[in-house]
Design goal:
The complex is a heterodimer of chains A (207) and B (336). Chain A is mainly alpha-helical and 207 residues long. Chain A is built from nine helices and two strands; from the N terminus they run H-H-H-H-H-H-H-E-E-H-H. Chain A has one domain. Chain A has a two-stranded antiparallel sheet. Chain A is flat, with a radius of gyration of 18 Å. Chain B is mostly helical and 336 residues long. Chain B has 15 helices and two strands. A two-stranded antiparallel ribbon of chain B has the order 1-2. Classes of the chains: A mainly alpha (207), B mainly alpha (336).
Chain lengths: 207, 336
C-alpha cells in the first residue's frame, strides 16, 4: 500500500485538488438546496465544518477500537451527536436561520462528505492528520458553496450577503433563486472547473 | 433501435459546415441535395407570413424583438462554437431560426435584455452544451423562452403583453386567453383567426400560421403527423369540455385559434431533432402536446401552455422512440 498522505497533504488536498463538491461530487444535497443566498450557504458550511471536525477527531481517537463490520454504525452515531449539537445551537442562537435551513441541518447526518472522510482518513490516521483533513475539506466545501451561492444570489436578487451590489434597475433572474438555478450554476461551474484543470494538466505536460 | 443515421456526400470533407443528416429509419432513399441548409431555408420561407403579420400588426415592437433575438442568437452561436472549437456553423441558418422563433414568441413590450438572455440560454444551454445542432434534447428556442419566462415573470406573464403607453393599439389590451381566464371576456373568432388580437408577435394570426405550416408539410420539411396529432387532440379534449362544461363565449374554435397553439404545432413541435423518428411516434408526440396544452389551459394557473407542453414531450421523445420502434422490412412478429 502506498504511503498515507501526511497532515499537510491532507489539508491542501481538501481545498482544491480533492474539493468535496467539484472533484468528489459529494454532499450535493446541501450544495443544491441551501445555496440561494450567501448567509444560508455560509451557515451550512460552518455547520458542516464543525460536524466534520468533531467527527473526524472522535473517530480518529477510537480508531483502534472499531470493529470493521460495525464501523459505519459508529460513524453515523458520532456524526449524529455533533449534528444534534449544531441543530440545537442554531435553534437557540440563530432561530430565523434555523427555520430557513429547515430539514437540511438534520440531514448533515447523511452528508456523504463526512462519512467519506471518516472512512478514508479518520479511521486510519492519527488525530492531527484527521483534524487537518477535516479543516481542509471544510474549507473546500465552504469555497464551493460560496462560489455557487455568490453567483445565485447576485444574479437572482442583485445582492450579496443581503447587501445590494447590482444597480437598482437590475432585473432579478428569479430562476437562479429557484431550484433550477442551482442545477444550472453547479453544472456550469463544474464545467468551468474541469476546463481550467484540463488546461493546467496540458500545460504541465508541455512544461 | 432508434439511431440517428448520418450519411455523408461521397468525397465531402469531414468538417463540412452543412453535413447531410438523414433522421429516419431505413431504407434511406434520399435526395442528397437535401442539406440542413435547405431544410432551414424552407422553415425561414414558411415563417414569412407569420413574421409579416407580426410586423404589420405590432410594428416596432415586433421588429425590435425579432432583431434583438436574431442578432444575439447569431452572436451566441459564433461565441459558443468558437469555444467548442467546432467549425463555424452560422450559415446553416439554424441559429437564425432559433432566434426568429424566440423573437416571435416573446411579448412585444418586453425589454431588450429578455431577448438577449433568452437567446444566449437557448443557444448555450439549449443546444451547444449537448453537442450542437442535432444533439439537443430540448427545443432550443423553448428552453430560452422557459428560462426568461420563469426569471422575469413580471415582463413575460400576461401583464407583460400590455403596454398602455404603447404607440400600437394592439398592445393596449389583454391577450385573448388571459382576458378569458381573468374576466371571462370572449374574443371574436374572426379576429382570432386573422390575428387582430394581442399576444406574442408570432402567435396572433392563426391564418398566417396555417399558411406557413401547410407549406412546410407539403415540402415535407415538417412531418404532417405532429401538427395533425396536436390539432386532433385539442379538438377531442376541447369538444369534450365544450360538451361537459360549456363555457359561454369560449368554444372549441377559440381553443384552436387562440394562443400559440398553431404556431407551436407547426413551427416549434416539428423540429426534427427533438421529435420522434417514426410516423406513429410523431403522432403520439403531437397528441401528447395537444393533451398537455389543454390540461394546462383548463386546469393550471397559466393561461397558455404550449411552451411547457413542447418541453415535456421533448423529454419523453427517447421513450416514444423505444415504445414505437420501426418495423424492419420482412421482420416477423415476436413469438409470445
Amino acid at each position: 500500500m502506498a504511503q498515507d498522505p501526511t497532515s499537510f497533504e491532507r489539508f491542501i488536498q481538501g481545498i482544491i485538488p480533492e474539493n468535496p463538491v467539484y472533484r468528489q461530487l459529494l454532499g450535493l444535497c446541501p450544495t443544491l438546496a441551501v445555496t440561494n443566498n450567501m448567509k444560508a450557504a455560509m451557515t451550512m458550511a460552518g455547520a458542516v465544518a464543525f460536524v466534520l471536525f468533531g467527527a473526524n477527531i472522535v473517530i480518529s481517537l477510537i480508531r483502534n477500537l472499531l470493529k470493521p463490520h460495525l464501523r459505519i454504525v459508529i460513524f453515523t452515531l458520532t456524526i449524529a451527536t455533533f449534528v444534534t449539537i449544531v441543530d440545537r445551537f442554531l435553534a437557540a442562537y440563530m432561530y430565523s436561520m434555523s427555520k430557513a435551513l429547515g430539514p437540511y441541518i438534520p440531514l448533515i447526518i447523511v452528508n456523504c462528505i463526512i462519512i467519506a472522510r471518516c472512512e478514508v482518513c479518520a479511521s486510519k490516521q492519527s488525530v492531527i492528520t484527521a483534524g487537518a483533513d477535516a479543516i481542509g475539506q471544510s474549507i473546500g466545501f465552504g469555497l464551493a458553496l460560496a462560489s455557487i451561492a455568490g453567483v445565485r444570489e447576485i444574479l437572482g436578487t442583485g445582492m450579496f450577503f443581503g447587501l445590494r451590489v447590482m444597480p437598482l434597475t437590475w432585473p432579478d433572474w428569479v430562476i437562479m433563486v429557484l431550484p433550477p438555478g442551482a442545477f444550472f450554476t453547479l453544472g456550469l461551474l463544474l464545467g468551468t472547473f474541469n476546463l481550467i484543470e484540463s488546461k493546467m494538466a496540458k500545460n504541465k505536460n508541455k512544461g | 433501435m432508434a439511431e440517428k443515421k448520418q450519411e455523408k456526400k461521397p468525397g465531402q470533407a469531414e468538417t463540412s459546415i452543412t453535413p447531410h443528416i438523414q433522421v429516419a429509419f431505413s431504407p434511406h432513399f434520399s435526395d442528397y441535395s437535401l442539406t440542413t441548409q435547405k431544410v432551414m431555408m424552407d422553415v425561414l420561407i414558411a415563417l414569412i407570413p407569420v413574421t409579416g403579420m407580426a410586423i404589420y400588426y405590432f410594428r416596432l415592437y415586433a421588429i425590435k424583438q425579432i432583431l434583438v433575438c436574431l442578432i444575439s442568437c447569431l452572436i451566441a452561436e459564433a461565441i459558443f462554437m468558437k469555444m467548442r472549437k467546432k467549425p463555424f456553423s452560422l450559415f446553416d441558418y439554424s441559429a437564425a431560426i432559433t432566434g426568429l422563433i424566440l423573437g416571435l414568441s416573446l411579448p412585444g413590450p418586453a425589454p431588450w435584455y429578455v431577448g438577449v438572455i433568452g437567446s444566449f440560454v437557448a443557444i448555450g444551454i439549449g443546444k451547444v452544451i449537448f453537442g450542437g445542432l442535432g444533439m439537443n434534447l430540448f427545443n432550443p428556442a423553448m428552453v430560452g423562452r422557459a428560462f426568461v419566462m420563469i426569471s422575469f415573470a413580471g415582463v413575460m406573464a400576461a401583464s407583460g403583453y400590455i403596454d398602455v403607453k404603447g404607440t400600437v393599439d394592439a398592445v393596449s389590451m389583454a391577450t385573448p386567453l388571459n382576458a378569458f381566464k381573468q374576466s371571462g371576456t370572449s374574443t371574436a373568432i374572426l379576429d382570432l383567426f386573422l390575428g387582430f388580437t394581442n399576444g406574442s408577435p408570432g402567435e396572433v394570426s392563426a391564418l398566417a400560421c396555417l399558411l406557413g405550416g401547410i407549406y412546410l408539410c407539403i415540402r415535407k420539411t415538417a412531418s404532417w403527423e405532429i401538427p395533425t396529432g396536436v390539432i386532433i387532440t385539442v379538438i377531442i379534449i376541447g369538444g369534450l369540455s365544450d360538451f361537459l362544461s360549456p363555457q359561454e363565449g369560449w368554444t372549441l374554435f377559440h381553443h384552436l385559434f387562440s394562443g400559440a397553439l398553431l404556431f407551436g404545432a407547426f413551427f416549434i413541435a416539428t423540429d426534427p431533432v427533438t421529435s420522434p423518428l417514426t410516423p406513429r411516434g410523431k403522432f403520439i408526440f403531437g397528441a401528447g402536446i395537444g393533451a398537455f396544452v389543454m390540461l394546462l389551459r383548463l386546469f393550471s394557473g397559466y393561461p397558455e401552455g404550449v411552451m411547457f407542453a413542447v418541453l415535456l414531450m421533448n423529454a419523453v421523445t427517447p421513450l416514444i422512440n423505444r415504445w414505437v420502434p420501426h418495423k424492419t422490412l420482412g421482420e416477423r412478429k415476436k413469438q409470445r
